[in-house]
Design a protein that fits this description.
Layout lengths: L15 H15 L4 H9 L5 H8 L6 E3 L4 E5 L5 E6 L2 E8 L2 E8 L14 H12 L4 E7 L8 H5 L14 H8 L4 E10 L1 H7 L3 E5 L4 E3 L3 H6 L6 H5 L1 H6 L5 E3 L2 H13 L39 H8 L6 E3 L7 E8 L2 E8 L10 H16 L4 E7 L6 H5 L2 H14 L4 E10 L14 E4 L4 E3 L7 H4 L1 H6 L3 H15 L2 H6 L5 E2 L5 H12 L15
Parallel strand pairs: 5-6, 6-7, 7-8, 7-9, 8-10, 13-14, 14-15, 15-16, 15-17, 16-18
Antiparallel strand pairs: 1-4, 2-3, 4-5, 11-12, 12-13
Helix pairs in contact: 4-6, 13-15
């Protein structure tokens, strides 16, 4: 028979007082630096760390860790009288349904400096990312848990950077670069260790009007005789132009969107493979505009980005490092849904010749591809290394050799499409040497030990000088040599495998992406990636 008797009233919770105390402490932590400092943060056009986390993550997905860590004061009754939370907020959450670790600096508490920090929080965020193989997003403002002059007074001693006793745990940042995707957003004044944590990432973003990044801020450099404003010293134009930061946007919301999109191309860690995202773009799509993309006049530049947009999945190209190393374009894209790392020569900048900056950009980019198992597509237009005094003074040959070495050290599948130039030692970098890579050439392709332009006059000086009309003789030699450098002549000797109709490029690249997909092997790369 069923028991219809009423249920007895619930007994009081045994631990209700403690639960109320916990809720009170969490409420105090959510107040951060207090209403005045929160208002000051908003007045400066900046969100608070908790607002940033909510906007960065999928709604309602944030699980905070160490919420009540901080410095408390107790009354005579041993009850909490005042509480200053730690200036790092971190935990787990979801980005487009995928788990991540997120850690943010609270600038309302001592400007994010060491005086208000609990060292274990930023350290554990890095450890959690490594241990659970999760991407980490750093929301950086201030010194990022780094030092402050007042630290000496508050601690009673000076910190010795590095070693087992150092609380910076920078070695974990280094480890994560080789293990999980790392995104860092500069969301205010970022100095010292905070600047290092921003740079120690696979993708970094600054918000233009509110962010500035520097090793040491204006008060320090002014004492050295260099008065500068924050923007003059470390504004977005400075830091994206030198390659210290990858990208700059107008608003914090745009920074969060850029971080989300970057992560969408990458796996959760090196132990996974990048996810495929199918679109409605036909892999067999032919674009007639590709027939006219490269002009016949070799001195005339063209827009490589227009070619990129026409061969990858529509709207899938995500460019990185736009303002640095401009002779080379780098970014992530999709081909038939598969994520790839795409690099391309840009003839609008120095004819596409590789500068020292461009070589640095290439090294970092192919290391990213190798680390996260992304096949590489290279749309080639490289007339060689930059020449001249500026090039030699920048050690272009040293950086160039490093770039060639980085390319040759890759093990990931590689496909090159020679759009125009491949010349000189720099031309060696159009694909890795010593292993099979797919390679196609457009009819506009041209290659050799060095460009004919500028070399003919030196090589044939005696013959030209002896001619009745030197100009006619030079034109005659030009025509003869141009016929010999036709890509079809090279194809006869199998120096180039396939010359293709430019309109077939997308189909062949999608074929490559599908061929490469089963060849990707999860696991750590042979060497760890450095920033």
């Amino acid at each position: 028979m069923p028991d219809d008797r009423p249920m007895p009233p619930p007994a009081p919770a045994d631990w209700q007082p403690e639960l109320e105390d916990l809720a009170h402490r969490k409420a105090l932590a959510r107040e951060m630096g207090g209403p005045e400092r929160v208002a000051r943060q908003h007045a400066g056009g900046r969100l608070t760390v908790r607002e940033r986390i909510e906007k960065m993550l999928d709604p309602g997905s944030f699980h905070e860790i160490g919420a009540i860590a901080g410095k408390a004061e107790y009354g005579a009754d041993q009850r909490i009288a005042a509480f200053t939370p730690a200036n790092c907020v971190f935990g787990r959450g979801l980005v487009d349904g995928r788990p991540v670790v997120i850690a943010g600096d609270d600038f309302t508490l001592r400007g994010g400096s060491a005086d208000a920090s609990i060292k274990g929080k930023p350290k554990m965020s890095e450890q959690m990312a490594t241990r659970f193989r999760l991407p980490i997003i750093r929301l950086i403002e201030g010194s990022g848990g780094g030092g402050s002059v007042k630290t000496i007074e508050t601690s009673g001693r000076a910190n010795l950077p590095g070693g087992l006793s150092d609380g910076s745990s920078f070695e974990l940042c280094v480890e994560n670069m080789a293990t999980v995707p790392v995104v860092a957003l500069g969301l205010g004044s970022v100095a010292g260790l905070g600047a290092a944590r921003l740079a120690a990432s696979h993708y970094s973003v600054m918000v233009k009007e509110i962010a500035a990044v520097f090793v040491a801020g204006p008060p320090v450099v002014e004492r050295l005789g260099e008065p500068r404003t924050k923007q003059e010293l470390g504004g977005w134009e400075i830091q994206t132009g030198c390659g210290a930061v990858d990208h700059a946007v107008d608003t914090e919301d745009e920074a969060f969107a850029a971080a989300r999109r970057f992560l969408s191309y990458l796996p959760g860690s090196v132990h996974d493979l990048p996810p495929r995202v199918r679109s409605w773009d036909d892999p067999d799509r032919r674009d007639e505009a590709l027939l006219h993309a490269v002009p016949r006049d070799k001195k005339q530049a063209y827009h490589m980005r227009r070619i990129i947009g026409r061969v990858v999945d529509k709207d899938s190209f995500f460019e990185m490092g736009t303002r640095f190393g401009r002779p080379i374009i780098t970014g992530l894209a999709r081909l038939d849904g598969w994520p790839v790392a795409l690099m391309a020569g840009d003839p609008l900048y120095g004819g596409g010749a590789w500068t020292a900056d461009a070589c640095q950009k290439i090294i970092r980019f192919v290391d990213l591809a190798e680390t996260f198992h992304l096949p590489v597509v290279h749309l080639v237009d490289c007339p060689g290394f930059q020449v001249g005094l500026a090039a030699e003074s920048s050690a272009v040959i040293r950086w160039g050799v490093r770039a060639l070495s980085a390319i040759c050290q890759t093990t990931i599948p590689w496909c090159s499409v020679i759009v125009r130039n491949v010349y000189g030692v720099g031309g060696l970098g159009h694909q890795p040497g010593g292993r099979v890579a797919l390679r196609y050439a457009w009819p506009s392709a041209s290659w050799g030990s060095l460009p004919l332009e500028g070399g003919v006059e030196a090589a044939y000086r005696a013959e030209i000088d002896a001619a009745p009309d030197p100009a006619v003789k030079m034109a005659e030699i030009d025509a003869r040599l141009n016929a010999l450098r036709s890509p079809f002549r090279s194809a006869e000797s199998f120096w180039v495998e396939e010359i293709i109709d430019p309109r077939e490029t997308r189909k062949l690249l999608c074929d490559f992406a599908n061929l490469a997909a089963p060849l990707r092997t999860p696991g750590p790369a042979r060497f760890g990636m450095r920033p």
